[in-house]
Write a structure and sequence with these properties.
Elements: E1 2-6, H1 13-24, E2 28-30, H2 31-40, H3 44-54, H4 61-72, E3 81-84, H5 90-102, E4 109-114, H6 117-125, E5 127-130, E6 137-139, E7 158-159, H7 166-180, H8 182-188, E8 193-197, H9 202-216
Parallel strand pairs: 1-3, 1-4, 2-3, 4-8
Antiparallel strand pairs: 5-6, 5-7
Helix pairs in contact: 1-9, 2-3, 4-5
This protein binds BIS(adenosine)-5'-pentaphosphate (AP5) and zinc ion.
BIS(adenosine)-5'-pentaphosphate is lined by residues 7, 9-15, 31-32, 35, 52-53, 56-59, 64, 85-86, 88, 92, 123-124, 126-127, 137-139, 142-143, 163, 172, 201-202, 205.
GO molecular function: AMP kinase activity; ATP binding
Function: Catalyzes the reversible transfer of the terminal phosphate group between ATP and AMP. Plays an important role in cellular energy homeostasis and in adenine nucleotide metabolism.
Catalytic activity: AMP + ATP = 2 ADP
């Protein structure tokens, strides 16, 4: 399957993507995680991306599309993938369509995670991620790690993302409404959008997502 996950910052895209990718046996491709890995390895791409991410803005399309395309062309993504955080505006969606067409592939669904703004703000405020791998995600009250400040998965140190400050979160939400939300209409026109409520316990949201994807088949 080839799935795109969309939803505001803090909706739980990363949390759900990890679980869905495992169940559906497809790789989880998160452009946010790829940028954060580049930042921790201090690559040129990481240095460029950090300045945009810390301000809550989108990283320029040219580098983002090249990075996403490169990842989707890896052998493990041949049979399908779950995209998290990409595409994030209409020109990225058009670039993805182009790639899909060139490679004779098909997008199966765009899973839209809906969550109210006050809830996503609370989720982001309490989020802690792992220094070793930013796809290891916890929340201080909703999904706390067994030991405070320590990643359950790999034992790494948990920290608060630089772009999770109140001011940057406000900017990221604005960017989501103005630049990312239009891709929902873009994909609605292709009949691909499946919307689910992303509220309630993590496992319930996963169940809802799997049901919705099955119904959509
Ligand atoms: P990215 O990393 O993609 O961030 P985002 O879209 O803002 O989404 P988040 O990671 O904040 O939230 P999420 O929905 O994954 O929620 P999570 O599962 O962590 O992008 C960051 C930046 O990178 C962008 O601002 C941009 O600069 C750049 N970038 C990335 N892609 C780009 C692109 N394509 N083009 C240009 N620039 C790009 O959950 C949040 C918290 O809630 C966690 O603590 C979690 O434990 C908790 N939680 C999750 N689900 C539940 C639940 N059901 N109940 C209670 N708590 C929950
Ligand atoms: Zn970890």
């Amino acid at each position: 399957m080839r799935i795109v996950l969309v939803g505001p910052p803090g909706a739980g895209k990363g949390t759900q993507a990890t679980r869905l990718a495992e169940t559906l046996h497809i790789p989880h491709i998160s452009t946010g995680d790829l940028f954060r890995a580049n930042i921790s390895q201090q690559t040129e791409l990481g240095k460029l991306a950090k300045s945009y991410m810390d301000a809550g803005n989108l990283v320029p399309d040219e580098v983002t599309i090249a990075m996403a395309k490169d990842r989707m062309e890896q052998p493990d993504a041949e049979g399908g993938f779950l995209l998290d955080g990409f595409p994030r505006n209409v020109s990225q969606a058009e670039a993805l369509d182009e790639l899909i067409e060139t490679e004779n592939m098909k997008l199966d669904a765009v899973l839209d995670l809906e969550a109210p703004e006050d809830e996503v703000v609370k989720r982001i405020a309490g989020r802690r991620v792992c220094r070793n791998d930013s796809s290891h995600v916890f929340h201080v009250t909703y999904t706390p790690p067994k030991q405070e400040g320590v990643c359950d998965v790999c034992g790494g140190e948990l920290y608060q993302r630089d772009d999770d400050s109140e001011e940057t979160v406000r900017k990221r939400l604005e960017v989501y409404h103005t630049q990312t939300e239009p891709i929902i209409d873009y994909y609605k026109a292709q009949g691909l959008v499946v919307t689910i409520a992303a509220t309630g316990p993590v496992n319930e949201v996963t169940g809802r997502a799997l049901e919705a994807l099955k119904r959509d088949q």
